[in-house]
Design brief:
The chain is an all-beta fold. The protein has one domain: Beta-galactosidase, Chain A, domain 5 (Distorted Sandwich). About 0% of the residues lie in helices and about 40% in strands. The protein has a nine-stranded antiparallel beta sheet, with no helix packed on it. The protein has a five-stranded antiparallel beta sheet with strand order 12-11-14-17-18, with no helix packed on it. It has a two-stranded antiparallel ribbon with strand order 1-4. A hairpin with a 2-residue loop joins strand 5 and strand 6.
Length: about 260
C-alpha cells in the first residue's frame, strides 16, 4: 500500500479499520510489516518473474483476504512491472515501486520533467491537505526539464515540511516523467496507469545503506500511485479494490542512453 494514511484508520462500507502506526500516528506503506517486508513465493512464468503473496484478512488492520502478484519482465532497456490483486471483500489497494535511482553524478544535477501541472500539498506528517494546487510559479514546477537541485532548498513551506521533495503529483497522462543525467547521459522514462506520482528526493536516507555509505539525497524515487490519504478525501480517485474483482496496474521504467 503506497504512501501514508492519516491517523492509521479509514472507514469503508460503514466499518472503521484501524491500521498499523509506523510513521508517527500514521500508517506508511502498509504498516510496520507491510508487503515490502513479507516473504513472497517466487516462480518463473515463461519470460516473467512472478512473486506471489497471500495477505490474510486483518493483516496490518486491512480488510479482506488478498491474493497479490507482482510480475517483472525485461523488454530491451525497460523494466516492466505488472501488479495483480484479488480480495474476497472490498479493501484498499495502491501498489507502487519504491526503487531509488541515481543515473550518475549527484541527484541535484539530474534533469527532471514530470507530466503534471498540479500537485497535492502536504501538511503535518506529509499527509495531503486535500488541496490540489497548480505547480506554476512554485519549486514544484517540473513541466519543463530543470535540475532537481535548482529549487530543492528554496525557501518554501512545503519543501521545509519534507526537507526537500516528497510530494504527490497529479499526472496528466500515462507518460509520468523523464529524468536524465548530464554526467552519464542515461535517461529514464516512467510510464503508468495510476493517477499520481510521488517524487521523493531521498530526504530521509541518512546513512541507512550498507556500512552507512548512503546519505541524504544520494538517490531519488519516482513512485506511481494513488494519491496518499485518498480513502479519506472524497474528491481524490478511490483506491478501493472491490471484493471478487481483479485489480491490475502497471509501472514501466524505460532506460536509454
Amino acid at each position: 500500500m503506497a504512501n501514508r494514511i492519516a491517523d492509521a484508520r479509514y472507514c469503508l462500507n460503514g466499518k472503521e479499520y484501524v491500521l498499523s502506526q509506523n510513521d508517527g500516528k500514521n500508517c506508511l506503506h502498509g504498516g510496520a510489516d507491510g508487503f515490502d517486508k513479507k516473504f513472497f513465493q517466487v516462480k518463473t512464468c515463461g519470460d516473467l518473474l512472478c512473486l506471489t503473496l497471500t495477505s490474510p484478512d486483518g493483516d496490518m488492520g486491512f480488510g479482506g483476504n488478498m491474493q497479490f502478484e507482482a510480475q517483472f519482465s525485461l523488454e530491451g532497456g525497460a523494466l516492466n512491472i505488472k501488479y495483480l490483486a484479488q480480495s474476497d471483500a472490498d479493501t484498499l489497494w495502491s501498489p507502487t515501486c519504491h526503487a531509488y535511482f541515481n543515473l550518475g553524478g549527484t541527484i541535484g544535477e539530474h534533469m527532471l520533467k514530470i507530466d503534471a501541472s498540479k500537485y497535492t500539498p502536504a501538511g503535518e506528517g506529509l499527509i495531503p491537505t486535500g488541496e490540489v494546487n497548480a505547480v506554476t510559479g512554485t519549486p514544484f514546477d517540473f513541466t519543463q526539464f530543470k535540475p532537481i537541485g535548482r529549487d530543492m532548498h528554496a525557501e518554501n513551506a512545503q519543501l521545509s515540511i519534507a526537507g526537500g521533495y516528497d510530494h504527490n503529483y497529479v499526472l496528466n497522462g500515462g507518460h509520468a516523467a523523464t529524468v536524465y543525467s548530464p554526467v552519464s547521459a542515461i535517461k529514464l522514462d516512467v510510464f503508468t496507469d495510476m493517477p499520481g506520482l510521488q517524487f521523493y528526493s531521498g530526504n530521509f536516507i541518512k546513512g541507512r545503506g550498507k556500512n552507512g555509505v548512503l546519505n541524504m539525497h544520494d538517490g531519488f524515487c519516482l513512485e506511481p500511485q494513488f494519491f496518499p490519504k485518498a480513502i479519506n478525501i472524497p474528491w481524490f480517485q478511490s483506491p478501493i479494490l472491490k471484493g471478487g474483482e481483479q485489480g491490475e496496474h502497471f509501472i514501466k521504467y524505460s532506460f536509454s542512453w
